[in-house]
Design goal:
alpha+beta; Alpha-Beta Plaits; 5-stranded mixed beta sheet; elongated
Length: about 290
């Protein structure tokens, strides 16, 4: 992070010097009079270096030669009124080249630092954890499992996890909170997915639903009693200080004969479980349970 901060600072200082260098004068006359095209090309080179991947990924020697050639072509083709060398023009051309080279090198360093930070964040939050298939991409597998359950009269169950976030502790300034909260939530969610996968069988499918925050576990050869046992085993993995999940179930063929019907039943089951939790946590029920104990 310190390297990124320094890259931004040095680039800003260099651009400030570049655009104010003509203000330096001796006895009321400007010492340096850079060509307008050099200013324009410098800004274009800085922006392209930071935004275009293949340019910022060039090795430094190739990168410098590339932009130096662009500078000289620009001066020859578009700044033809001014010679490159001779008298004061040699000094001006050297100054233009020096400032331009410093600007592109600093922009190259800034682009590399941004790339390194992006890679670090991705590896920290996502790279170590497996990707989850979306329901839309797994339709063929789902239909095969439904068909097999029908043909061989086997049970198939699904578990729907509805993700709910609690407050994620963020200790930094307000301007950084949103970014940190998103990264931390994705990281915690990825850890939860990793833990879930360790508890599932090879035949079970863990899918991401098109509704944000919802995961679906398709568990072949699992009846209603089996899926309830699975829910009890997975329950602790889906609850923490920062994340909670509502788990609901549906079983083929008792609760539906298509995947869509199973999802509908699981949604209604989720509502029933939430209502039951609310009623169990009501003051009257808590007082009654305490009196019984």
């Amino acid at each position: 992070m310190l390297r990124l901060q320094n890259s931004i600072l040095y680039l800003l200082l260099l651009l400030t010097l570049l655009f104010n260098i003509e203000r330096l004068d001796v006895a009321g006359a400007p010492v340096i009079n850079l060509a307008t095209g050099v200013y324009v090309l410098t800004i274009v080179a800085v922006l392209l270096t930071i935004t275009i991947k293949w340019i910022r990924n060039l090795p430094p020697p190739v990168f410098v030669l590339f932009w130096t050639a662009v500078l000289f072509l620009t001066k020859i083709l578009f700044i033809s009124k001014r010679p490159l060398l001779g008298g004061i023009y040699t000094y001006v051309s050297f100054t233009e080249l020096s400032l331009f080279a410093a600007a592109i090198l600093l922009s190259h360093s800034l682009a590399r630092n941004l790339r390194d930070i992006e890679r670090t964040i991705n590896s920290f939050a996502f790279a170590k954890f497996p990707k989850i298939k979306r329901v839309e991409d797994a339709q063929e597998i789902i239909q095969e499992e439904i068909y097999r359950s029908r043909r061989f009269q086997r049970h198939l169950s699904i578990i729907v996890l509805e993700r709910q976030w609690k407050d994620v502790p963020i200790n930094n300034k307000k301007a950084e909170q949103d970014t940190q909260r998103v990264l931390m939530r994705e990281f915690l969610f990825s850890m939860m997915v990793r833990d879930l996968l360790t508890q599932l069988r090879q035949t079970d499918l863990l899918l991401e639903h098109n509704k944000k925050g919802r995961l679906i576990i398709v568990s072949p050869e699992t009846d209603q009693a089996g899926v309830e046992n699975l829910v009890e085993r997975l329950g602790p993995l889906t609850q923490s200080e920062t994340i909670s999940n509502n788990l609901s179930t549906a079983t083929f063929p008792e609760h539906g004969v298509t995947f869509e019907q199973l999802l509908e039943y699981a949604e209604s089951d989720s509502h029933r479980r939430r209502a039951s939790q609310i009623s169990m946590s009501s003051p009257e029920v808590v007082e009654k349970n305490q009196s019984l104990t």
